[in-house]
Every structure is written in structure tokens, then in C-alpha cells.
């Protein structure tokens, strides 16, 4: 079924303006380089990792000190191919904890603001 011009315009407006992930619209997110897309996705997935308590046994001291997931994959971890680049390192080798994290993300909507930004602490912008 084809869309009318008004429907196409409304869809395009939403694509370019409605919050999608971490304060970006879907259009802005789609135009990012792959590394930045993965970083924004990791920020969102740090919320269920925190709720599930993965920071307690995390290898990264920054997570244990903050008492919440703050970790990002290192370049070495990304290059090995053993980690999913869209998840923080606590998802584990070969995505060991990914199913639990996705399930928990469904229940973490109250921990994200209206622009799909985590409410669990401030992240420094890389701009």
C-alpha cells in the first residue's frame, strides 16, 4: 500500500525529529558511524546491566566504584570478535548475558527519560 504525501511527510518528520535513542532521532542515529552507534547502544544497555547487578563482579574498576555499569568495550575487545559491539563488556564472551539484559531492558522503561536517555547517572559527552 502506498502512502500519501501527507503520510510520507509525517513519517519523515518523525524519522528526523522524534527521540529514538539517547537523545538522537532515528535519522541522526542512522547517519552516525558504526562505532558511535555501538557506543550509544552500549549506553542504553548499561541500564539493564546495572539493574541486574553485573557491576558487582565486573572486571572494570570504574563500574564497581560507581556501583553501576559504566563500561564500554575496548578496541582490543572489539577486534577479537568475541563480544557483541552493541553491548557493554559485562554481556560476556559470545553474548553470554545478552538474553537476560534484553529481558531486563523491557522492564527498565521507567529508568529512561522521554528522549531515551538513561537516568542512572551522567555520562560525559564525547563531543
Which key terms come to mind for this protein?
mainly alpha, two-stranded antiparallel ribbon, 6 helices, about 5% strand
Question: What do you see in this structure?
Answer:
With 127 residues, the protein is mainly α. It has a domain at 34-111. 46% of the residues lie in helices and 4% in strands. The chain contains six helices and two strands, in the order αββααααα. It has helices at 5-17, 26-31, 34-51, 61-66, 75-80, 98-106, and strands at residues 19-21, 24-25. Strands 1-2 form a two-stranded antiparallel ribbon. α3 (34-51) crosses α6. The chain is elongated. The protein starts with a helix and ends in a 21-residue tail after the last helix. The model has no long low-confidence stretch (mean pLDDT 88).
Give a concise summary.
The chain has helices at 5-17, 26-31, 34-51, 61-66, 75-80, 98-106, and strands spanning 19-21, 24-25.
Query: How big a fraction of the residues is strand?
Result: under 5%
How many helices? The count is 6
Which overall shape is indicated by the principal axes computed on the Cα atoms? elongated
Give the strand line-up of the largest sheet. Answer: 1-2
The N- to C-terminal Cα distance equals: 42 Å
Helix content: 40-55%
User: What is the overall pLDDT average?
Assistant: 88
What structural class results from the helix and strand content?
Answer: mainly alpha
Main sheet characteristics? 2 strands, antiparallel
- The radius of gyration is 16 Å
* H/E topology pattern: HEEHHHHH
Q: Which parts are unreliable, with pLDDT below 50 for 5 consecutive residues or more?
A: none
Number of strands: 2
